[in-house]
Design goal:
The protein has 51 residues and is mostly helical. The protein is built from 2 helices and no strands. The relative contact order is 0.08.
Length: 51
């Protein structure tokens, strides 16, 4: 666990910057997918009730 923290201590390194950027992009994509799944399930529930 500490090795991962120590690896990201040098923020001026391009490798760590790329790692943080890719991690942030993955987190944003996951969040968007989660919101879409929630919205989709709610819409599906509304259609089921309307039927």
């Amino acid at each position: 666990m500490m090795s991962g923290v120590a690896r990201f201590e040098g923020f001026d390194e391009p490798a760590s910057a790329v790692a943080w950027r890719s991690a942030g992009a993955l987190l944003i994509l996951f969040f968007i997918a989660l919101l879409l799944a929630i919205a989709g399930s709610r819409l599906y529930g509304k259609y089921e009730v309307a039927r």
